[in-house]
Amino acid sequence: MKYRKKGIKKEHHIIEDGEELLEDLVKKGLVKSIIPGRIKTTPKGQPGNPRLTFQYETNSGAKLLLKKGSTVQEVFVITDDVPALKDYVIEKYKNK
C-alpha cells in the first residue's frame, strides 16, 4: 500500500523519536496497522522522552497518544487483541 512502511502509515509526520515506539508494537505482534493522527504542540515546548498512553478502545482497535515533552500526537491502531495492547502500553510506560 502507498505510504505504508513496517505496518505504519507514513502519510503524516510522526513525533521525533516516536517511530521506534510504534515499530515496537508491530514487532511484538500487538497491532496490525498504525495510523498516526494530528500533532498538537504548545508554544513553550518542553523536552522529554517519547512515551505512549492508552486512551480508549475503538471499533477496529484503539486510540493511543504518543507524547514527547509537551507535544502530543493521536495514534490509531488496528488490533485484534486490545486487552494485550492496553496491558503492554500501561506496563511499559507506567513510570514515564
List the helices and strands and how they pair.
Elements: E1 4-5, E2 8-9, H1 19-27, E3 33-40, E4 50-57, E5 61-68, E6 71-78, H2 82-92
Could you describe the 3D structure shown?
It is a single chain. By secondary structure, the protein is an alpha+beta fold. Helices cover 21% and strands 38% of the residues. It is built from 2 helices and 6 strands; from the N terminus they run E-E-H-E-E-E-E-H. Strands 3-6-5-4 form a 4-stranded antiparallel sheet, with helices on one face. A two-stranded antiparallel sheet has the order 1-2. Strand 5 (61-68) and strand 6 form a beta hairpin. The radius of gyration is 13 Å and the shape is globular. The protein starts with a strand and ends with a helix. 25% of the residues are buried.
Distance between the termini: 34 Å
Please count the beta strands (DSSP E, at least 2 residues each): 6
What is the general shape? globular
For the largest sheet, list the strands in their spatial order. 3-6-5-4
Mean pLDDT value: 85
Largest beta-sheet characterization: 4 strands, antiparallel
- SSE order: EEHEEEEH
| Unreliable spans | none
Helix segment count? Answer: 2
**Category from helices, strands and their pairing:** alpha+beta
Share of helix among residues?
10-25%
Radius of gyration: 13 Å
